[in-house]
Amino acid sequence: MPSTALIFQSLILGILLGGLYALLAAGLTLYFGIMRVVMIAHSAFLILAAYLAWHFHARLGLDPLLSMLVTVPLFFGAGVATQRLLLARLRPATLTMMSVLLTFAIALVIEGLLGYVFTGTQRRIRLDYGAASLEFFGARIAVVKLIAFGMAAVALLGLYLLMKHTRFGWALRATIQHGDAARLIGIDTERVAGYGFGLGLATAAVGGTALSLDSTIYPSLHWHWIGPLMAIIVVGGLGSVPGAAIAAMTLGLAQSLLQLPLGATWAQTIFYIALFATLAVRPQGFFGGRLAQRF
Amino acid sequence: MTLATVELSKSFGGVAALDAATVTFRPGQVNALIGPNGSGKTTFFNCVTGMIRPDSGRVAYQGKDITGTAPHRIARAGMGRTFQLCRVFGRMTALDNVLVAARSGSLVERLRSPRSRDHVERARGWLARMGIDHLEHAEAGAMSWGQQKLLELAGVLMSDPETVLLDEPAGGVNPALIDRIADLVRELNAEGKTFVIVEHNMDLVMSLSDHIVVFDRGRPIAEGPPSVIRSDERVLGAYLGV
Amino acid sequence: MRSDSEQLPSGQLGRLLRVGAVGVGAALLLSFPAMAPNPYYLSAGIVVLSYAVLATSWNFVGGLTGYISLGHGALAGLGGYGTALLVTKAGLPSFVALFGAALLVALLAIPLGFAALRVRGASFVIVSIALVLILLLVFQSWASLTGGSRGLVVLRPFPGLLRPEHHRVFFFLYAALLAAALIAWWLIDRSRFGLGLKAIREDEDKAEALGTPTLSYKLIVFVVSAAFTGLGGGLYALWFGDLDPVFQFSILTGAYMVLMALLGGVRHLFGPLLGALIVGVGLEYFKVEYGSTPLHLVGSGLLLGVVVMFMPDGVIPAVSHAVRRLRGAADSSIREVTAAELAEQRRPAEPEEARR
User: Fold this and answer.
1) CB contact under 8 A, C298 and A113
2) pLDDT the model gives residue C328
3) Number of domains within chain A
4) Highest averaged pLDDT of the listed ranges B16-20, B193-197, C321-325
5) Mean residue pLDDT across chain C
6) Which of A241, B32, C184, C231 would be a feasible disulfide site paired with B209, CB 3.0-4.6 Å?
7) Domain that holds residue C284
8) Are residues B70 and B171 in the same domain?
9) What's the rounded Cα separation, in Å, for the pair A106 and C301?
């Protein structure tokens, strides 16, 4: 039996990890809500952002957090472009299936280009504050993990405020809940969908920067992220942002705690077990997820 | 051969689409289901045919409880339906569209060709009856809206239903075709098929149906023959939003 | 469907031509081992042929029902590891192990298909990808059974054979498996069962409302597809003799199957085979010319993107379309508008109010 201190530490690490999962899953479920698209390339963009942060630090010697000044607007634009130029041109009848393939193709291209430009070598940012940690009731928590969590929390809060309290957020939620009705009351749903995608990719930029702070990165790393993220949005109910956040926290915690008895690799299987169990028992997801019934 | 529901309820995200709807349709007759937009008619169809599971309440058909039964079983039990925005298999030929609905029993039989002489003859028969047999090799997606409506009906009839549910058969079709569809319904009814029709075209409903059920806010508010419904004040109220 | 003979205008002649073409194709294929200048070409031929088997197996689900699986690579990997483990741990004869493993894969496909197929579209793709990722995790971590990243060596089924002979035998074994898969697909395609599956592809609700037992149909064809995929993977294990989880449970394998089938044309019997020839030869060529750079990912990704965006029905329809246009616009009017396009045209013309 692991000591209480160790369990406490895992608990905190789980919450910190869950925060990052929540941010990234929010983006993924947002795309689904807007267009019924499973955006496989979401995590590839995440890794791309992490690489850009690393490159920023390695070449310019600046703090990787500053790279967000570039990557966030860049990714927002890339998201809008992806939606307007590619996804919106697919036939509506086969959109769900074909969009998966298209975003899968984008993920392959990103992974290939990362491998070509930066080679397959594992990379890691060395920060002055990288080794610093805080003592917290006997648990040791790395400062970078706290920063990463803080970034995720701020971005998620920003997303929440945007969706709840701005005109654009209302239009976006209307588009998600009932596209036809939104069009009838004069919302330009195409445009809203484009911005929604931009928003989703912007969260990937924030997430990627956060990830780069304390993780070793390599081009094919995105496959290790897309699986858990997809599991989270199914468990949370496809298209439901709050559902994704709750599921992310729950599963992040579960993963962190299971690492104690099982080790890191086996603990990851919790996501897939949760995914299969959800689909077998309650395919529409556990939190919200009205949309999933038909998909 | 009765189709009936008891206290059928279904809500979407807190909005009640069906609110304890208890309805009994008349076997062997042309029944109509009318009501303002959003009064729950299509949801009612979806619950009855198994496409949506109701939150509570029961659906009975031919004396059996069919609540929550899979749609294909309900279809096999003798209840066929069309869809509101006419649905055909766009990239299949008209003939194949009808052949899909043919019954086959054992697994071995299902591995035979769908174009057995018997099935093709019956399918052609229905296409001919709809007046679109000259299009049997045309891809359904390339046919006109009216032709697709007739094709959909031919498919449903191929599955040999005793009860046919039509969701807005006159929706978006020209007056000549409306008359044609009305005639078909009368003929088929005379041959013993029961109909339940959701329709907004009041002239058609009044001239065609024997029994009308009026829905408002997810439950029936009046029923009776056309003469009674025409003068019912609650019906007028529901339609005018009073 | 266009793969049916009676739809072509010149029925008899067309049929004869097609049978002739298949015969010539088969003869060319079978004479390849004799013509291959060296064992390398022969082994490249086997790789391409194994892709053809996998893509055709994938197409039972992808082509007939329209459900796109990105996880078939995992089923092939399971077939491979199943065969290898049954040979090395259980001591079964090679080909008994092969069929035993395929049977196990088919059995596993039942609960898997049940979880994945009960819900529509998106969840199916998610499950298919998740399958690859979880199996990679398991097979890498469970090193005591699978050898983990060190790999798993399988005894050759014909220890007496020299390498070129070994290749030759496996080339014909793969050709036989391909023939079996093609025949099975052809039989299903022209059956009532196949018509039901195609109805599911077009409009699942509608198919169900007409009495098609959609879930059982999807499940059955998924299991058939899994069995053939398992056989393809198992044969690879026996031929190659060395398995590594990273390659057996690679998301890329599944992506290649999709790319090949889609490129060739999922509605056509020979579509996946054609796609496998194009992509497979391309991949082998790429490997020789550029070695193992990550650029093959970029190439595959771009090709997949182009196919999805511009010719989702594959090259066969794209080419036959062009041919028909060249022949004159005699019967071109009817088929050029797809149902989806028509539905879009229709939408604005049918506002709610107009239907009252």
Assistant:
1) yes
2) 64
3) 1
4) B193-197
5) 86
6) B32
7) 252-315
8) yes
9) 6
